[in-house]
Amino acid sequence: MPRHIVCLTFDFDTQSGFIARGMTTPTLLSRGEFGLIGAQRILALLKARGLHATWFIPGFTIESHPAACAAVVEEGHEVAHHSWAHVPPAHQSRAEEEADLVRANEANAKLTGRNARGYRSPSWDLSQSTIDLLLAHGFRYDSSLMGADYWPYRARRGDIAELGKPFRFGEQTALIEMPISWSLDDYPHFEFVRTAAAILPGLQSARTVMESWLDEFRYMQQTVEWGVLTYTVHPYVIGRGYRMLALEGLIENLQDAGAVFMTMEEAAAEAQARMF
Ligand SMILES: [Zn+2]
User: 181 CA distance to ligand 1 centroid (A)?
Assistant: First the structure.
């Protein structure tokens, strides 16, 4: 029997990503604050559709906005690890990365009563140490790599990439990779960001983006018997009215097309049982 799984994932960053980039003027911070309104809208939509999703929540958001995070838990969604301070691991020393990982683990455990099973790195940029640290701290899955689209795979450590030499694969580990893509992330499609160095134009038609996202599901259905497709959205980005309508339309179309919705922890467990 064909089985096509969809993981809806919500990165509940609020102000953390702005602070991590030194963008701390009132208007910039208020963009992240809007995520509190967006999260309420998303929770209502998921409840109306009878869906459970995965929320990657930085420790910063857990400790700054406890009621908003408690609401996520009360609705039965999975809470997964998204660092404490939203600094990409690629920018940290191993000691800094591990300290942040542990601090966020403590915040997660306080919120949900257990350690998170899954991890997603801020801004999707792992360090050479990340896979090692995730294994050492008992994680089951990561969702930060782009080496596949419709099937989970084993995360590797020790890949060697040197200029002028052939690529060498490292060893496969027990950690399950739940792959992602910027093309299936709301941020680059919608956010208008202007800095001294660059302009990210964003502000695309929400319905056009959702049509592409639905095509990704259709192509998975056409080409594989079993697969997992992951969408990544941010409450402060997708929470705007016209984007919420488009997201609702996408969910409706996916349900009509036979998508099986589950949390990422559930999808990783099914992948473990089926594929490895
Ligand atoms: Zn994030």
Answer: 14
Cα(166) to ligand 1 centroid in Å equals 33
| Length of the chain (residues) | 276
Q: How far is the CA of 187 from the centre of ligand 1 (A)?
A: 10
Q: Specify whether the CB–CB gap between 28 and 45 falls below 8 A.
A: no
**CA–centroid distance, residue 23 to ligand 1 (Å):** 15
CA atoms in the 13 A half-sphere facing the CB of 17: 21
**Residues near 235 by beta carbon (within 8 Å), at least 6 away in sequence:** 10, 12, 14, 34, 35, 36, 37, 38, 39, 41, 42
Centre of ligand 1 from the C-alpha of residue 106, in Å: 18
Q: What are the pLDDT digits (tens) for 37-74?
A: 999 999 999 999 999 999 999 999 999 999 999 999 99
- C-alpha span between 208 and 101 (Å, rounded): 37
Amino acid, single-letter form, for residue 206: A
Query: Strand, helix or coil at 143?
Result: coil
The gap from C-alpha 226 to its chain's centroid, in whole angstroms, comes to 21
- Cα(12)–Cα(21) distance, integer angstroms: 16
Reported pTM: 0.97
| d(CA 88, ligand 1 centre) in Å | 9
Instruction: Say whether pLDDT at 5 is over 90.
Output: yes
Alpha-carbon torsion, ordered 146, 155, 78, 115, to 10 deg: -140
> Ligand 1 centre and the CA of 222: distance in Å?
31
